Amino acid sequence: MKFRVSLLLSALGYAAAQNVTEAPVAMMENATEAPVAMMENTEAPVMAPVAPPPPPVFEYLPGPEVKWFANISPMEGGNKIMLVKEQNIVIATTRDGGLWGLNPASGMTEWNFVASDAGVDTGFSDGGPSVAEKDGQMFMVYGVSSGVKFGSDTTCTIVGRYFDGSVMFISAPTNGQCSGTPKVSGDGQHVFFTHSLHPEGLRNGCFTVISTTDAAVFYTFCADLNQPMSEPGCYNNPMLGNYEGGETNTNDICVMGLAPYNGEEGVGTSATYAFQKPSNPVLQPTHTMLLGEEVGRKVEWQLNAPPLIFDGGYGMLISASRNRILGWFGVPNSEDSQKFRENKFDRLPTARPDSERGDPLWLSSYSHPVITPSGQVFVSGAKTEIRAWLDPEMNSGGGASWTYGYTAQAAAFTQPVLSPDNTRLYFQEGQEGAFYGMDLEGTILWGPERPTGGTAVLGDFSVDESGAGIYLCDQTGQVIAWKIANAPTEAPTSTPTASPTASTMMPSVSPSSAAPVEATPMPSVSPSTMPPETSAPTTASSAFAGPGLLASSVMFVAAVVFM
User: Fold this and answer.
1) Are the C-beta atoms of 172 and 156 separated by less than 8 Å?
2) For 518-548, how does the pLDDT look when each residue is reduced to its tens digit (9 = 90+)?
C-alpha cells in the first residue's frame, strides 16, 4: 500500500508542478460537493497516448551453437520436447510412456516419471505434452498407452501433473491407444483426446472429453467406421463454431478426422468431425460430422496429423491424403456473407492447391501446416520437400510459391517451426537429423546441421518463446539444446514527452490477465550427487549416461554444458 500511495503523491506533485490549480470546493445545500471548476488561464494535464510496445529485436547467430547435451529415454514420432519458460523447465514425453523435466540451463534432470507411475505396467506414447493453467496454477497433460502399439487390447490413460511433479489427476483407461497429443480447454477444466483400436475387426476411432478435477468422462463418441481417429486440432475461445449450427457457439472447438490404419493401402473411409460444448449448458453435449458419406458430403482424404484452426476459428488447414493441403479461410458474415458461407468447415475446402504425391502415393503429411499472422503457409509434405504459399489464402495460381526439395529417403516426421518473430522457418530434412534454418522466401540461412551424427530424429523439436534456443531429441534419447540467437532486446523507444502518460499518472491496481504463478520448488539434489566435470565432446553425437537413481521415479542424468 505504501508503494501505491507514494506513486499517487508523485502524480499529484507532478500536477502541482504544472500549475494546475482548482477552485475552492463549494458545498451544496444537500451537503454534497459542488462541481469543481478550473481556474482561468490554467490547463488540465495532457494525457499522452500510450504507444504499443515495440517488437523485440532479434540478433541471430550464423548457425546454431550447442549449449548442452543430456540423455533421456528415446523419443519417437509424435513425442515432443519443449521449454516452459514460466516454470523454467524443459519437458519431454518419450516412447516408453515417460515424462521428463530438465533444467534449461544445464540439462540436468529435475524429475522423471515412467509409465508405471500412471498405473500402466507396460506403456508407450506417440504424443507430446500440453501445458495449461487452472485457478492460477500451471499444469501438464500427457497420454500413456498400455500394451503393444497397434495391439488388440490397448488402452489410453491421460495424466495431469503440476510442475513440481505431483499428480493432478490420472484418468481411468479408455479402449484403444492414445492418438497423439491430448489438448486442454482454455479454462483448464477439460481435456480433449482421441484414442483408437487398430487391429482388423476391432478398428475404431473415438473422441473423449474428461474433467481435470476428477478425470470423470464429460463426453465420448466412437466413429464405428472401421478406421482409427486422428489427433484433434483444437482452438480455445473461438469467435464461433464455423459450421452449420455452430455460428453462435464460442466454446472451445476441436476438429478431427479418420486416419489410415497401420499398413492400410490407398485411401479408406473418410470423415471429419467437430466438437463444442453446447452454448446452452442445459443442452446435452454432442458432436457434428462435418464431412462424410453419412451426411451426403463424401470426401476422399484421411489425416495423419491434427487440423490447424486459426484466425479466431474462421480458418482451418488440413494435411490430407495424397500429399494435399486443404484450406478454409472464412470471414465474419457481416464482412462478406458469401465468403462466410463458402468457408464453413462442413463445406468442401475453398483452397485445394495442386501438389505432387508422396511415397506411397496416398500418404498424407505427418505434421500439420504452419501459418504466419499475415497468412503465409508452410508445410513439410508427405513427399521429401518443404512447400510454401506466400500469397494470402494460398492464392498462388494453383501451385506453391516455392518448393524446397531434399534428398532424404523418407519424409520428415517432425513439425516445422516458425520463429517467434515470423521471419524464419526451422525444419528437419527427412528423418536423419539434418536441420536447417531458412527465411520465408526459401533461402537457406544455415544447415544442414547434424547434431545427432545422423541418428534419426522422430519426435517434435521446439523453439523457445524468446527465439534464442532450439531443443531436440533423437531416437536414442540424446537431447541437444542449441543457441540460435542472442536473447531479444526491446527496440529503442521514442524520447519521453513532457506530459505524463496514463500509466505514470496513476498506477493500475487491476490484475493482469495472466497472474504470476508462484514457482513450486523442484526436487533438490546435494552437490555431491552431481557428476564430475567432463570435457566437451568432440562430436555432436556423443552420449552421456546418468550417474544413478534418486527414487523409484526420479532419475538424474549427466549433462554437458557449453558456455
Assistant:
1) no
2) 434 444 333 333 333 333 333 333 332 333 3
- Record the cell numbers describing residue 377, joined without a space: 503457409
Each residue of 75-128: pLDDT tens digit? Answer: 999 999 999 999 999 999 999 999 999 999 999 999 999 999 999 998 999 999
Q: Span 229-254, mean pLDDT?
A: 97
Cell 455460428, residue located = 247
Given the C-alpha cell 494435411, which residue does it identify? 319
Backbone angles phi, psi at 190, to 5 degrees: -135, 155
- Three-state DSSP at 312 gives helix
Work out the angle at residue 398's Cα, subtended by the Cα atoms of residues 395 and 404, and round it to the nearest 5 degrees. 95
Using CA atoms, how far apart are residues 551 and 563, in angstroms rounded to an integer?
Answer: 30
Coil, helix or strand for 438?
strand
Cα distance between residue 298 and residue 320, in whole Å: 14
Distance in angstroms (rounded) separating the CA atoms of residues 363 and 355: 12
Which secondary structure element, helix H or strand E, spans residue 503, and what is its range? helix 502-505
The rounded distance, in Å, linking the Cα atoms of 439 and 461 is: 18
Task: Look up residue 74 and give its three cell numbers.
Answer: 528415446
N residues, the chain = 563
Q: Work out the burial of residue 287: count CB atoms within 10 Å of its CB; fewer than 13 is exposed, 13-18 middle, 19 or more buried.
A: middle
Would you say the pTM of this structure is higher than 0.85? no
Which residue type occupies 190? Answer: H
Contact (CB, 8 A) for 205 and 227: yes
What is the pLDDT at residue 56? 67
**Distance set, CA 345 to CA 179, 315, 334 (Å):** 22, 9, 18
C-beta neighbour count of 226 within 10 angstroms? 16
